Amino acid sequence: MIIITGGAGFIGSCLQAALTKRGLDTLVVDWLGSDLKWRNLARHAPARLIPPEELDAFLETNPKVDAVFHMGAISETTARDADLVWRTNIALSRRLWHWCARNNTRFIYASSAATYGAADRPELFSDDPAKLNTLEPLNLYGWSKHVFDQHVMKALKQRAPRPPQWAGLKFFNVYGPNEYHKGKMISVVKVKYDEVMAGNPARLFRSDRPDIANGAQARDFIWVEDVVKVMLWLYDNPAVCGLFNCGSGTARTYLDLAHAVCDAAGVARKVEFIDMPESLRGQYQSYTQADLTRLRAAGYTEAFTPLEEGIRRYVQDYLATGNPYL
Q1: pLDDT tens digit string along 41-71?
Q2: Active site residue 182
Q3: What positions does the domain NAD-dependent epimerase/dehydratase occupy (predicted)?
Q4: Mind spelling out the 3-state secondary structure of 273-317?
């Protein structure tokens, strides 16, 4: 059995689809709610689904579990309830780490590029554990992911019990199918697609930094299938442990993204700049680019999908169809 927390969510459900395709039994820990989130699992239902509040009781039954993929979290970068974020993103992650250590179960978890805070140069996006304590996340979400990364490194330094395989993945800006339930945290690709298909220009935030032109803010955008490939590679290589960046390794501008969406949708390129919301000023990452040195050194050799190709596939194979789910 493989447990996927957040398995009905965006990345979790895409991983669930891939594991199901392999014929593996999975248990998804998530809420489906009363909206359309269930459709993320419609084509690849798990063997079992339990709500998060029942996870601890389930684990107390000592089930035989091969691996835990811990994708579940409060992922809003604008989250404000720090107590809830602590319980969900830190305390639960610690319990799962210790359970996996006691039960000889592999543990692969989601960290985040939000841990890098205001880093704005390629050399500042190193996932070297020796540099971990120099990071200063800009928001509560990024801080919570950073705290758990630090917990893992402290446990290793103290030679405390650990899972037989462990890996943390610092996800950069992931886009692709099954993200439709994410509300304001949905990818920029989907938002721009909706805008241009409604006959409007693609709207981008004006830069809040005098040294960066409007539309020149750059992020490392990664196609969700590439993220799943990295996770499957870790599953297939149980000797690999570590904290790794999970991005494309290339920073692309928001203007590049908007143009790629227009091209994929078959509409004329048209972009409009709007003021950045006050709530994002001072917390907005104007540049991210994954340093993949350590992931490559660990043995991962797959190429990453270029932005234009990933957006073309997302738009034409999913968003423009009658059923945009994976």
Answers
A1: 999 999 999 999 999 999 999 999 999 999 9
A2: yes
A3: 2-239
A4: EECCCHHHCCCCCCECCCCCHHHHHCCCCCCCCCHHHHHHHHHHH
